[in-house]
Design goal:
Number of strands: 10
Strand content: 25-35%
Number of helices: 3
Structural class: alpha+beta
Shape: globular
Largest sheet: 5 strands, antiparallel
Distance between the termini: 31 Å
Radius of gyration: 19 Å
């Protein structure tokens, strides 16, 4: 991969050599990837998991953890991390953001409940197998396995992801996660940050 870092003089020359009206507006985001790119990566990652490409990263005994969430990194480079997460009943991520990273997910099987802060209240939505969602900067949400989520789409899918009918999703973050902040809703109906942690784990510590 070609380095995207330019020397100061090279950057200045490139800037001055381009007519102002034709120059693309530089992004203020910390990554060149966009939500659509992350959605595509999670969709491709989901297809690869279902096709068996990442079987060597799955639990060796074929049994998915039932007490705590479980995750494995499918892909990583300087621009993006892609993860597979297995969700367990009753375990939420807590309200959090992704600090300086954009995010996206694709649900492989089962269903997830997302509680998103919309500025005045928490709004709930359910994401089922095949659904996708992206998370721009400043997105604060809590995610957990939805009760009685639907079964995987086909019997073949169920066999490929394991015998316990797990709830699985593929997540992408760009730049790769380095920190997350956690929040609580106050009695005045506002959001208060409770702590910030350094982490490279997806959707909070496993």
């Amino acid at each position: 991969m070609r380095s995207s870092v330019l020397s100061l003089s090279s950057a200045r020359d490139a800037f001055s050599a381009t007519p102002p009206l034709d120059r693309a507006i530089a992004s203020a985001l910390p990554t060149r990837l966009r939500p659509a790119d992350l959605l595509r990566l999670t969709d491709e990652g989901a297809e690869d998991v279902l096709s068996g490409r990442y079987d060597h990263l799955l639990p060796s005994d074929g049994l998915w953890p039932t007490d705590e969430r479980w995750a494995t990194r499918l892909l990583t480079d300087e621009e993006v991390d892609v993860w597979l997460i297995s969700w367990t009943p009753g375990k939420s991520t807590e309200l959090h953001d992704h600090a300086g990273s954009l995010g996206a997910l694709t649900v492989l099987s089962g269903a997830l409940s997302e509680y998103r802060w919309n500025g005045t209240e928490l709004r709930r939505r359910t994401l089922t197998a095949g659904d996708q969602a992206s998370f721009p900067m400043g997105w604060v949400h809590d995610v957990m396995r939805a009760p009685a989520g639907p079964r995987p789409v086909t019997d073949d899918t169920a066999e490929s992801v394991g015998p316990l009918d797990p709830t699985l999703s593929v997540h992408a973050y760009s730049p790769p996660l380095t920190a997350m902040s956690y929040y609580e809703v106050t009695g005045r109906g506002t959001l208060r940050r409770t702590r910030t942690v350094l982490t490279d784990q997806p959707e909070g510590d496993m």
